[in-house]
Amino acid sequence: MPKIDIDKAPVTTASIYPEPYAAQMAGRSSRGLGQAAGLTQFGVNIVTLAPGAVASLRHWHLNEDEFAMVLTGDLILIEDQGEIPMRPGDCAAWRAGVANGHRFVNRSDAPASFLVVGSKAASETVTYADVDMILRIDGDGIEMTYHDGSDWSGPRDLAPKGDRK
Hints:
The protein is mainly beta. Helix content is about 5%, strand content about 40%.
């Protein structure tokens, strides 16, 4: 494929999360570069966070590797081990199956963006570290359960554990 016109790549502000978690993603947008190129084996997105926005709930992937590089602005990477300031050019990566819940937060007063690349496994399990939810995705669709495996019917505890410092 020739050069990707970034400005023509699809932008989404939607969230796969159910409420009340979907509303917590306000201020996040994602530009699908991999989708624009027709890629099928891995995803490539530029995620932009408005001031105060978060990229996701803290999570880790069972079957998919993930790589991120800060492009603009100042972000905070929150992982199990704590908080890490991230600036343009800084990179982070997470191997599939390593239980290290992570997410980016923009605590600055300016927009910030990062490139994220992830493999696309035929089936995936995403575990959320601070809320009682697991997401399973495969050819049959999406299934949500609690950490104990029972069917998810809504938040058991509306107060997430929060960001660890």
